[in-house]
Design brief:
The protein is α/β, with parallel strands linked by helices and about 425 residues long. It folds into two domains: about 190 residues, 3-Layer(aba) Sandwich (Rossmann fold); about 210 residues, Rossmann fold (3-Layer(aba) Sandwich). It is built from 16 helices and 14 strands. β1, α1 and β2 form a beta-alpha-beta unit. α9 packs across α11, α9 packs parallel to α12 and α12 crosses α13. The longest helix has about 30 residues. The protein binds nicotinamide-adenine-dinucleotide (NAD). Nicotinamide-adenine-dinucleotide binds next to α1 and α5.
Length: about 425
């Protein structure tokens, strides 16, 4: 229950952020209506069938439906009427010029505007550029409601746990009463709550994603350096992690960063900086290093194939941008495979979250998706591990080596024991370790 007691909440857009927000707010005792324009999604959620893969989401969805505190609809007007808080959780994709496209935020604002109760608080949870709060105010055209920025920091794959146990809650409010009301809603989480102005709140979200992306670009560069100088990246990174100022989170080398947030948010921040006359060179370098990382991994696969992948069968373990999610948006695995396809490789893959066959979300990438890791490896010259699904670490490598036609193993996640790979007869290469 909120510090102010349970309240009525509408959540507009029930994707990774919106559905997680809806089930968690209902779990806290509030009455929540989730709204989506996607009717099929609404039917699935209403039947207790989560449209996305997230640990714990199904249970909270079932609880919310059973208690009657959680419902879903396509009817925005009905959902918003009598709601004290209306959360905007719609997409903010990258526009053609790199900036965040606010179209869905503005559309949703216009749709809710006529139906909002006087004194309602509209909460922008979508990641939006600095100054967007003013645009939401303009799109609403209502002087009797408040607009509050409340960026979301959850990680896909751990969305529910992150939402219920956040490191902090950030609230950017122009009106003190609205900031206090939203703080009270979050009070039961027991997390630190930072209340600031909307521009600072909007900047915090981009600053965090840019920092984390830069951290991964940095560690990937260190791993590449280790490969060049003959150092062991695993030991180098362990040695760095002991330093509390550095820490071990987001310090694992890999095929590059991706997913639904980092790529678009880093580009959006570059545009924000540029629009205000500041050249953010460090961020530019992080993005360049990341693009180069996809080629670095493709080069490693080519080297494992003898220098050229044209006509060579390459098996990929992992397609999603990280483990524990089914999200393929801007996946580095897909970026690496696209580069291999452009060089003429024949691709076959397995990902625990992906159905057998080719998936339209793979952006036209010609890859045959198998139902298990061994089948995907069959007849492949090179196997590349692209997503850190835990089951890959324990795979029976002798069996894998038997079904492959070649012996190359590129471990872009440093999750396979090189000694085990060697014992199985595979030629192992990892990120900064061999
Ligand atoms: N995915 C993440 O890990 C994450 C984390 C933090 C912040 N964010 C931010 O949160 C926002 C949403 O991201 P997401 O990954 O949940 O997106 P998503 O694509 O998974 O979900 C968005 C949902 O909004 C719906 N929608 C679009 N317009 C609508 C409208 N007018 N009315 C009702 N529903 C509408 C879509 O049908 C979709 O179901 C983005 O700004 C994103 O940057 C995402």
């Amino acid at each position: 229950m909120g510090g102010q007691g349970p309240v009525r909440v509408a959540v507009i857009g029930t994707g990774y952020v919106g559905l997680t927000t809806a089930v968690c707010l209902a779990h806290l005792g509030n009455t929540v209506i989730g709204v989506d324009v996607d009717e099929a999604k609404v039917v699935r959620m209403s039947a207790g069938d989560p449209p996305i893969l997230e640990e714990g989401l199904g249970d909270l969805l079932a609880d919310g439906l059973a208690t009657g505190r959680l419902t879903f609809t396509t009817d925005t007007a009905a959902a918003v009427r009598n709601a004290k808080f209306v959360f905007l959780c719609v997409p903010t994709p990258q526009g053609a010029d790199g900036a965040a496209d606010l179209r869905y935020v503005e559309q949703a604002s216009a749709q809710i505007a006529p139906h909002l109760d006087s004194g309602a608080v509209v909460v922008t949870k979508s990641t939006v550029p600095v100054g967007s709060a003013g645009k939401v105010v303009a799109a609403l055209g209502r002087q009797d409601v408040a607009v509050v920025s409340n960026p979301e920091f959850l990680r896909e794959g751990r969305a529910v746990a992150d939402w219920l146990h956040p490191d902090r809650v950030v609230i950017g409010a122009e009106h003190e009463w609205a900031g206090q009301a939203l703080s009270a809603l979050y009070e039961p989480l027991g997390a630190p709550i930072l209340v600031t102005d909307p521009a600072s709140s909007e900047t915090i979200k981009y600053a965090c994603n840019a920092f984390l992306a830069a951290k991964v670009s940095f560690v990937n560069s260190i791993a590449n350096l280790c490969a060049a100088v003959g150092a062991n990246a695993t030991d180098v990174i362990a040695g760095m992690s002991y330093d509390h100022r550095i820490g071990s989170d987001h310090l694992a080398p890999g095929p590059g960063w991706g997913g639904s947030c980092f790529p678009k948010d880093t580009h959006a921040l570059l545009r924000i900086a540029d629009d205000h006359g500041y050249r953010f060179e460090l961020l530019e370098a992080s993005i360049r290093a990341n693009d180069a990382q996809f080629d670095t991994v493709a080069d490693m696969v080519a080297a494992a194939a003898g220098g050229d992948v044209s006509g060579v069968t390459v098996a990929a373990w992992g397609l999603t941008f990280k483990a524990a999610t089914d999200d393929l948006r801007d996946s580095p695995a897909v970026s690496v495979l696209s580069r291999l396809a452009a060089r003429g490789a024949r691709l076959q893959a397995f990902d625990p979250s992906q159905p057998v066959g080719s998936d339209p979300r793979l952006d036209g990438l010609d890859v045959e998706v198998f139902g298990d890791a061994l089948s995907a490896a069959r007849h492949a010259s090179v196997l590349v591990v692209l997503t850190e699904w835990p089951e890959f670490a324990g795979a029976d490598l002798r069996h894998v080596a038997e079904v492959m036609s070649g012996s190359g193993l590129v471990d872009a996640r440093n999750m396979i024991d090189p000694a085990r790979a060697k014992a199985a007869g595979l030629t192992y290469v990892g990120m900064g370790r061999s």
